[in-house]
Design brief:
By secondary structure, the chain is an alpha/beta fold. It folds into 4 domains: 135 residues, Response regulator (Rossmann fold); 109 residues, 2-Layer Sandwich (Beta-Lactamase); 168 residues, Reverse transcriptase/Diguanylate cyclase domain (Alpha-Beta Plaits), CATH 3.30.70; 246 residues, TIM Barrel (Alpha-Beta Barrel), CATH 3.20.20. The strands form 5 sheets. Strands 18-19-21-22-23-24-25-26 form an 8-stranded mixed beta barrel, surrounded by 4 helices. Strands 2-1-3-4-5 form a 5-stranded parallel sheet, sandwiched between helices. Strands 7-6-10-9-8 form a 5-stranded antiparallel sheet, with helices on both faces. Strand 25, helix 26 and strand 26 form a beta-alpha-beta unit. The protein starts with 8 loop residues before the first strand and ends with a helix. The structure holds ligand C2E and magnesium ion (MG) (2 copies). The site of ligand C2E has 23 residues, from strand 19, strand 21 and strand 23. Ligand C2E binds next to strand 19, strand 21 and strand 23.
Length: 750
Amino acid sequence: MHRHQHTTRLLIIDDDLLVRTLAAEALQSAGFDVMQAADGRTGLTLLEQHHPALVLLDVMMPGMNGFDVCQAMRGDPRHARIPVIMLTGLDDTSSIQQSYEAGATDFITKPINATLLNYRVQYALRASRMIDEIDRQRASLANAQRIARLGNWTWRPKDARFECSAEYQRITGMAQPAPVHHWQDILRNVHPGDAERVAQAMQSALEQGEACAVAYRLLGRDGIERTIYEQIDPFRDEQGEIYRIEGTTQDITDRVATEERIRHLVDYDGLTGMANRRLFSEAVQLGLNQSARGNAKSAVLDINIDRFKRINETLGHAAGDQVLKEVARRIKGSVRARDIAGSIDETAQSRLSARMSSDGFAVFLTDVRRAEDAAMIARRLIDAIARPLPCGEHELTLSACVGVAVYPDNGDSVGTLLKNAETAMRQAKTIGPGSHSFFTPSMNTQSLARLQLENDLRGAIARNELVLFYQARVDVPTGRLVGAEALVRWQHPVRGLVPPNEFIPMAEESGLITPLTEWVVRAACRQLQAWQQANLPVVPLSVNLSARSFHESGLRDLIQLALSEFGVAPSLLEGEITESVLMQDVSVAITRLHELREVGLELAIDDFGTGYSSLAYLKRFPLNVLKIDRAFVRDILTDTHDSAIASTIITLGKTMGLTVVAEGMETVEQANHLLSLGCRLMQGYLFARPVPAAAFADMLRDGIAAPAGLDIQHVESGVALPAPDCFALAPAAGHQQRPLAGVAAAGRLS
Ligand code: C2E
Ligand code: MG
Ligand code: MG
């Protein structure tokens, strides 16, 4: 019966033998394999046994009619999709209607036209195959979507209809689609941190018709956070209105995690978890860019464990690995401690130290203000590595050498800096285990000396090695000693008396200035108390407040505490702040100055003329005294420019009601010139050098020897002082002014 293997099998169910035979004949000659059944029951049995591709079914049959058979077929999932062509009478429209209701695919009227029948069957089969194909594709799409974790949904804004695929529900962790009344309901499980971004994307799709893609985190119903990639596509109808939004939702959680893992493998050292050379170089490049923008220094440190090979050789590689891990941990710890206050986040931080070779590490330091900072970290790293290290039942003591290359001094590219740091490290190795070295030799000596000094200074305050010297401030026309500036010195056990210019800047940079200023303020107050107790006619003392101290909020409390502890009147203390410090941050300066004024301090602006203050600012500072920088005094006789500036400052001071003091007065000619410009208060070697407390006590008691040749005629009286009383020699309690000894004797004042 089979003509060939791929013959399509059909089943004809009809009680009319003639119709059956004719139809079978026609279809067989068209190449089909045709079975016949004379009644419904037999038909269903054959159907069961042979699974024909199509059924021709007569409507009118005794027993089971065609509708019953069709219905029975549709009710059985195995036969539900077999196309059924009903054979009806020519004008039997009600049968046609009924046929469709019973689930028939098509109908053909009797008497049967053979050619037509053949075509009808072909069409029905083709349609059926297409439906099968679509079903198959849909199934495989769903399968592919499941495998790709790709879900999709549709939102129709007009009738607020939301549909989604099973995979979408799985991704979002929904047991069944949650009701969606508004498009925002679709986003209800989006991570709060991403919600706004996703909402914006949706809105622009809905309103502007813009397709877009967003990645975001989704909090599934199951409580698991997933990473989602969502493609949002709007569709417009013929009127151009957006009637449908389609979302393609992909769960990329695993992919992101895998990518992260791969990236980690590519960028980090497997043993220590530190950044590798590649990632480190990248991080250094970023750091250098930043340094360049901020005009800051940075440094690359090359760290190499001394004789590491021996550990591997004697204890084995497993022990070697353990040692390296521990060294890495210590390096990370040492660097982290430094930047604890910095704003660098954990990941960025992790890239600033790296494993560079089997026994080599590197560290990148940002914000290196001085080469010494880098040296300090190098020492810290060396010390950290040198701590005893347990290794199995042994305890090892390692050492490491560190080479330092500073940007921009030793190179401005990553490659050069790495190379130079390594050269410096090799240099350190020649010095000996546990050494560090800079790439530039001069940096070694400089930093060593400064490091030493800094270390010494740390102890200097505790060891009481600081001393205050006092330099007189004189009201020249009256010859009175009207004040003194307290100037710190460091009595170094080896170097002798160190001038402040050699350690104040360092104290500023290292933060030691805070305890130093405290020491100076307290020493000045203690001294005032001692002089008062010795019944000496004390004069106000001015102390220098450095930039950092001045900007610290604790300054006021510190001064107040010292004043009350030593029972000193606030009017006996004056604060000197250099002009440049005031100009660094004007609003903070104003606040601080007011704080100090509230305490009762007099305030002087030091080194005036060098800091380019504008008059507008000067007016806002609550100041009492203006000190002309000694740079102007030095050349005042030869440099008309300097003279003009000094003159202007004096006039300015007068108009603003400030006391003007000229610093650095060394010669009588300078003094006379300033007197002629109207400045009567002076400080300088001409009158007195800074002297220790005992020598200054003598000045308080006896006055100062007046230099010969002072010409005080020009000076208008009453500029800054009450009417001169140059002969009032009697010492009294409180702060009284003393005349210059010998001035009266010189007989030039009247
Ligand atoms: P300064 O506040 O401008 O102090 C005046 C400096 O000029 C003092 O130097 C003083 O000895 C020097 N000087 C005074 N008269 C003459 C003179 O006729 N000719 C010359 N060539 N120099 C004269 P010193 O004591 O070396 O202090 C230098 C700077 O160190 C001070 O400048 C001040 O800024 C700072 N300084 C001194 N003591 C302290 C302190 O206790 N704390 C702080 N923060 N800074 C201080
Ligand atoms: Mg000063
Ligand atoms: Mg000065």
